[in-house]
What does this fold into?
Amino acid sequence: MAKHRNNSSPDERKVDALLDAKTSLRTVLEASPMSMFVIGQDRTLLFINSIARDLFKFHPTECTNCFCDLIACRSRSLNQSECGQSPECLQCELSNAIETILKGEGGAAGLRGESRFYSDRDQDVLWVKFAVTPLYIDGMRYALVSVEDITENKLTEETILARERRFSEIVRYSFDSITILDAEGIQIFVSDAVERMLGYNPSELIGIPVIKTMIHPDDQERVMATFTTILKDGMGGTQYRHKHKNGSWVYLEAWGTNQLENPDIRGVFVNVRDITERKLAEHALSVSEERFKSIVESSPMGIHFYQLDENDRLILVAANPASDSLLNIEHSKLIGMFIEDAFPGLNGTNIPEMYREVALGKICMQTFETPYQDKNISGVFEVYVFKTGHRAVATLYLDITGRKKMQDLIIQSEKMMSVGGLAAGMAHEINNPLSGIVQNVQVLMSRLAAEIPGNLSAAAHAGCSFDSIKCYMEKRGIFSALESIQHAGERAAHIVSSMLEFSRKSTSGHVPISINALLDKTLELCSTDYDLEKKYDFRHIRTVRDYDPVLPLVSCIEAQIQQVVMNILTNAAQAMAGTPSPVISLKTFADGEWACIEIEDNGSGIAEDVSRHVFEPFFTTKPVGKGTGLGLSVSYFIIVDNHNGTINVESMPDKGTKFIVRLPISPNRTDKF
It folds into this structure.
């Protein structure tokens, strides 16, 4: 400020004189980092340093104006008529302090305070801290005003307060609970959400060592380890059970960060979320999965699980243990393979496409029966196909080969019973005319050869001697012809009798029989067998019998053992069709408590891979329509299941075939070789 001003007032001249007299005071006020004013009794601005002019943006021409006018309320947000009535109005604080000091009030120490200014010159708000002290010159009282700009500090405080309010609101309305622990695990802050979550008022948990007192005993060690990790590494999280105020346990998930060095927090900041419903759902899902796993793994049915890849190809992703035993393969080696590669027998069928359509939801669950054959698997299977998830399908299957075989065996048995009944009926019908033929042949032989009175009288009446008639008959071979007719008739009658006996249902159980006699009877019955198509006749096959004459009687069902022997003999005769000098050898002998029957032929023999399957139902080497594949399987059933015996085959190609049947001599014997 200039030392001498034109048109200055007496007060101004006194102040100038004082300041000039005390140059050091002017220097101090000018050099002060704060805004400095001297205000006269009439509120005139008598002195202002450069800092003040810059702060309040006063023009030099304004410096002689009334200071109170210069700092009058100019807030555009306040109505001038309501000045001082707004709780936000702090602008008059400085004016009031000046008024008080100029009136000689306020004490020697002066007045201090804060004030806020709104300026016409810009949109900024000016916050200041002021001090007003009395200044005496020649007995006159003046006001010395110092003003410090605290706008930046105020804005910073407002920002901090806004953040704190925002944080407080976030914490207040957060669905999760916010907890702050000190380094010892003591809770120093708990948000309001804890009351909804755990039933406690936040004040009830302050100062509590939560880990030791509120966490489930089984979870405390894990939670403490996590807390230690947070202190060491800065962050961590875990799940645990926290005691509810009602005594129950609530599943919580907590994630914490180490903010001990943060001056605004100075603790371990933990975000806690209630996961009880999720845990219960997870537990229910786990129980369901365990139940499903148990069902799958203990199911006697085979189960395959498939997933479609991006090209809609089915990939085998899992199989249950029963699958290995049902199919006799290791499914672990097939996991990850395409269905056509894992089960090549499905190639060329519509089954993979059906599975794909089920997996895609194009069709619903399917059920079907299908035969399957590849180098490892053979059988008939009942299959259930159903969708299990997105682009996923499962198949349940059961090997019904035995059931199908049994069904066919029942059908075949019924057919055989029908054939047996038909054969019995035919035998009865044949027996009647056959009896007439045999009887009439006997009558002819009696009337043509026997010299009885009736024959002699009839010859004399005819004009010839009976001897002449006999001589003619002998010369023409009539007697030998009649004898042949009689022998043929008797043989036919014996065959009919055997057929009736074979077709007759057994009404008794095991009875002691002679195996040697049974073989002879069966050979005689088979001797009528011939096949025009294969050009063989059983009568042209030489039979060799090597019987044990002292073989004990064997307790068995005669008709069933005869059926077994007939099946073996018939197969042997058919296998030797076209074989020069065919021979069938039959041998019986005792081996301890077993009666053994060996039936051997010199036919073409059986290959090793075929001989392994000869007793399987429906296995046959004959063309379609020429054999059922049931004869030897029925024989196996009769010997093994009905008689507790054994039946085996030994054969080599071009070396003939031998069947060995072993029957227990005692009907109660159950041990087998």
